[in-house]
DNA sequence: TTATTAATGAAGGATGTTTTTATTTGTGCA
DNA sequence: TGCACAAATAAAAACATCCTTCATTAATAA
């Protein structure tokens, strides 16, 4: 953080940002409260609010009555002043959500896709899903302020999928480049577990936890890490890939579920987890043993993550998130002995929305960073 | 970073900090260059420099002649305006360094101590070492602006040693509290590996690397991690403690050295490493095998760290840092197959000074943060 | 002596604060 | 229904701080 100095116009820019942040964080405010919140004088914020109103970043609400005296004019952030797109590229489903700048999801569209689909087919499905979501939101692509897509695999800072085990066809794809062809706004690409971790911090189990490990568990196993509330990405986008270490259990963990003997023949792998957990829940000893083995292998990898970054909280998400009642206790039992000081372990309640919500959050962060950048002129809202 | 707004006096405070940072980072400067570096007008920086000069944070150097035109007045950061203390509490040695605010070590004092020394004895030795260093620097304790001490074990944010395997007597000690009795300035306590990582970033192998894992290897094994150039401490100070995971090799690694059969009887454990490496260097097959085993166990733990945080660089330090020629190749050979994209592996060249240098850096960072804080008035130099 | 670079000083402009005065607007009571 | 009160808005004046630009003066090398 090397803040540049400058003249009084720069001071005004800073005060403008301060005012905008105050309104956003403290909800609809009158001028008097706003002046107090921003630590500025009332005439000053009045001028600043005027400017923000004219720029389209604030809107005036009808005044609230009920109190003594003249009711204050109320101002709020103009959340509809822009929209972002969050995308989750899964093995079986492509999810796209449109959210306004206040973070409210205003439209969503999912497309099912075969897990065996090739690169071209998957990209085509993606375009369909995007078009569907935009139509549902009543927006066109040029009105989108930022796009973020989550995908399995190691993603470089340039948005290239360097390595994907879950989607082998995906390896080497310049996903950001592909998406940039459809948008003329910033396009971000991120590992899906990382985005899920962001989502947990935003709207999930980790509301006030800044040191977080999110573990995606199911057919695949992966992790996203938050340090001081920010994504740990590593030098080359490879943070959290503890599953690559054969000394720990992640590489063999899913086999306990997909290879479970009690499954009806022909069960697709993505349904195996739910079936095994259901059987365990109803007391089937073989299933309980499978869950136990699965939990042990999962705990080995989690232990390495926990001992490395020492999080306050570990959130389990992905396919297992509906089976917390059966899985949570065994995981804790295996994990705790490995830890110097065991973290809290919780099950995600965001379900399948975690990645797409995290993508929305990431895109919003990008827009916010621009909005709050003193060095650039105040951007314009796009609607 | 939530910068508050304010009036023009706040702007001046920002410009003051900008000017000071410019001088510090770009060395002795004339007013014209300074104005360009700080992106401010010349009359403005002139006033600011006047203020900094009066406050004692800048000093004027004799002008340099030899150039065409009127020679510029030269200004530099007044590094002697304050001093910090860096402390390394080792098993066998207590090191104390005094540095000025420019980071130059102006005095140091070491005390040897028995590794079996109890808490009181070690604390007494520490006081002796501190007094010796202060005397060598010609300073008294009340002139010190900040103190940072490094010790083995997990250290809480409050500066309590929560758990130390290397110094069992140390566990539970409120080290920060003990030191605060001798100083009325901020006292910081930090894990020694963390400080060594900071030192590598400051003056060692990791000059321009912000994603770093430092591995202390020798009689003990530990790690310090830098993410975006900042210390990864974890929620409870337990980051980097991968040695606690029995599935990986760190817990048994030192045994290959201390338990080496070819050692002369009665070799103290702290000398074992050097002897084994020396034997391996001269071709002893048993020693080479021991080194190989040691490197494999070391690599297992490093792999977990690397796969979790994906650093650009891994620095090996501690007891093994003089034996890089024998150790580096085996470690790389065992580490690389575990990694998706192997990081650079290097040997520290800071030797035994790494921790104490890192402690100095940490104390300096603390002072700097105050100096650069817009919300507080400019502090006064202490000498 | 001249060219070059630095220091100095005055004028001008942008911004924020405080203070004052007048106005608006809904509440609550008679 | 009408009136006094409370709280917020609105506008303007007076002042202070700070930065910038521009012209002028000072010091040194060639």
TrEMBL record, chains A, B:
Gene Ontology annotations of biological process type: regulation of DNA-templated transcription
MF terms in GO: DNA binding
Chain ranges of the HTH iclR-type domain: 25-61
SUPFAM superfamilies assigned to the protein according to its UniProt record, in alphabetical order: Actin-like ATPase domain, Winged helix' DNA-binding domain
Highest taxon, organism lineage: Bacteria
UniProt-listed InterPro entries: ATPase_NBD, ROK, Tscrpt_reg_IclR_N, WH-like_DNA-bd_sf, WH_DNA-bd_sf
One Pfam family it belongs to: HTH_IclR
Entry's family note: Belongs to the ROK (NagC/XylR) family.
Protein name: ROK family protein
